[in-house]
Amino acid sequence: xxxxVLALLSLALAAPAQAFCGFFVAGSNDQLTNSAxxxxxxxxxxxxxxxxxxxxQGPPENFALVVPVPVVLHKKDVKTLPANVFDHIDALSAPxxxxxxxxxxxxxxxxxMPMAAAAGGMMLGGNTRARHASHGVTIEAQFVAGxxxxxxxxxxxxxxxxxxxxxxxxxxxxxxxxxxxxxxREQSKFFVAKVDITKVHRDxxxxxxxxxxxxxxxxxxxxxxVRLGLLNANGPQDLLIYVLHPSSRFEAANYPNVFPPTxxxxxxAVRGNFASFYNQLFDAALAQHQGRGIVTEYAWQTTSCDxxxxxxxxxxxxxxxxxxxxxxxxxxxGWGYAGWVLTRLHARYDRKTLxxxxxxxxxxxxxxGRGMWNGSSEGDLAPKPSEVNNFxxxxxxxHYWKGKVACKSPQWxxxxxxxxxxxxxxxxRDLQSxxxxxxxxxxxxxTQVPALGLPGH
Length: 457
Fold this sequence. Notes:
single chain; 457 residues; alpha+beta; eleven-stranded mixed β-sheet; five-stranded antiparallel β-sheet; 8 helices; disordered N terminus
């Protein structure tokens, strides 16, 4: 079975480059802005369930997503999900900033704290098929899913597909036919999800929030095409990829795999600019590979986290993201989802650094970013091999004891949360919108990082 090739066709010719991994086609020449960049790939055996989310700012015109897929999809294969379905998985896996306070070195030692568990518009008319037959385009199926009016197409050549889209009043960016040609040669089908603007939801700022689309398909190789998005790119594009698997983490098979330095001690100044700080660190780590690499930010069992900015994923979370399709028996008991692994991968690319679509494969377990309450750490700055996946991008503000020392044998280096409550924690959310260049790493990183030229303090 051919692997999937994903493209979102977009009109955003002059939009800020925060596109997902493709471009929209639209029903007008007005500008659309795609501000989403997240995809969940739930993988089991040779089956993939993909969930993608896209928001846009633009005129109230119907527009469409065009997604090449390996097989004809039917109504039962496609679902719309709640708009907030990405919130939990993003918060759980985002780089985190924690704060620890050094306890009074003369106070009695507290009992040891238990460690967190390590494992665990309009539908096409009836005569459209005949009217466009001369272009080599065939309508294989059509149905409605939420606010999406979906048509499944096959095409004999990319030029005919481009003509078909233009005759249906979609305005394509220059080079679309050429970019689609490889997928037509692979005999992909084309999933066209047209949005009925009268059915969409708008947030408090008037931004249209589309329901995430979920669809599953057989796939021998886990692949995520992103090159089509460069047709509209006017700068670097970010993409967050969350991979869920029953037992393994995933990494890039055809690009360098990069790990951000973790367990770094940072100054108080990072608290108010954590997302910007992380962007600077991310860029510095990626620069070691000439900007060409896929960054692993999280790899952990779904049943636990330490520290936890939000509760771990529940069986219902995994079922919603595709577990009900690939492992329905596990959904009935819930226990079948225990021990699944969540991998968060972060790609930032442009025309110079992206030469081919992303391909992923299973990888051995790693551990890193495991700071303990007593101030020790596992994994140091980089991940190490492990029996289970416990890796996270974690950064620490330490408040050293500055009070009186009224004993002969003080016990230094015992750390805990703030005296008046639980540990403070910040997750680096909305990394795309966080400004770059605001934080100077040499001024805020206390830990020595030789690879990045950071001397420490």
